[in-house]
Design a protein that fits this description.
It is built from 8 helices and 6 strands. The chain has 247 residues and is of the alpha/beta class. It has a single domain, classed as Rossmann fold. It has a 6-stranded mixed β-sheet with strand order 3-2-4-1-5-6. Helix 5 packs across helix 6 (183-194). It is globular. The structure holds (2R)-2,3-diphosphoglyceric acid. (2R)-2,3-diphosphoglyceric acid binds next to helix 6. GO terms for molecular function: phosphoglycerate mutase activity.
């Protein structure tokens, strides 16, 4: 049996402002720092101490994992980071207000961009202020791999090689693995773990800062479908809030 802990970063400055974020590298806000600290307490209380940490290349996930590891006295464990765990690239929506986008384009288009499995938002121009085309952290990435927009299917495609190459070996070594990432990169991972259909994943929302724990069998199949949030009541309320964002 292996243990996988999934954690969406704490509330970010742009979650608070209700802006589409994607690959824009915003920081946690005060609430997010607090959530990360609470996440650490939940893990410590459950006796879940990570042996290895995986994060995206984005500050909100990196800081969250650092706060959590510090909080459980595991600041010394190996850390691996990859762009493949980054948030879904939100294309031309990056930096846009969710409520204003909903009002401008209507419910159907808004939800198609946010939650459809295979319809990406329009691409972001390389000279846009919220583009990552010149970001040095992606300099080694071949240009054709650097996204300008992504749908969830694209995220799954680019995330799975990292899952198989980097996370699975840690799980097969029976390490307790912490993956700190994002609303949509975690939705893609949960879709894979739980074998969710393209239709079912539309309704899946992941709250910030609440650890979601999967016990995996020898074939890395979840023993409990959907895993278990360490604070189920708080998760339920926060999931509803994510679902209603923009309204
Ligand atoms: C949010 C997800 O990503 O937004 O990119 O705006 O997890 O990094 O805060 P995160 C964003 P929704 O898809 O839930 O609108």
């Amino acid at each position: 049996m292996s243990t996988l802990i999934l954690l969406r970063h704490g509330h970010s400055e742009w979650n608070a402002k209700n802006l589409f974020t994607g690959w824009v590298d915003v920081d946690l806000n005060e609430q997010g720092v607090e959530e990360a600290g609470k996440g650490a307490t939940m893990l410590a209380d459950a006796g879940l101490l990570p042996d290895v940490s995986h994060t995206s290349l984005l500050r909100r996930a990196i800081r969250t994992s650092q706060i959590v590891l510090d909080g459980v006295d595991r600041h010394w464990i190996p850390v691996k980071r990859s762009w493949r765990l980054n948030e879904r690239h939100y294309g031309a929506l990056q930096g846009k207000d969710k409520k204003a986008t909903l009002e401008q384009y209507g419910e159907e288009q808004f939800m198609t961009w946010r939650r459809s499995y295979d319809v990406p938002p329009p691409p972001l121009a390389d000279d846009d202020e919220f583009s990552q085309a010149e970001d040095p952290r992606y300099a080694a990435l071949p240009d054709e791999l650097l996204p300008r927009t992504e749908c969830l299917a694209d995220v799954l495609d680019r995330m799975l090689p990292y899952w198989y190459d980097s996370i699975v070996p840690d799980l097969l070594d029976h390490r307790t693995v912490l993956v700190t990432a994002h609303g949509n990169s975690l939705r893609a991972l949960v879709k894979h773990l739980d074998g969710l259909s393209e239709e079912a994943v539309v309704g899946l929302n992941i709250p910030t800062g609440i650890p979601l724990v999967y016990d995996l069998d020898a074939d890395l199949k979840p023993t409990v479908k959907g895993g278990q949030y360490l604070d189920p009541a708080a998760a339920e309320a926060a999931i509803a809030a994510v679902a209603n964002q923009g309204r």
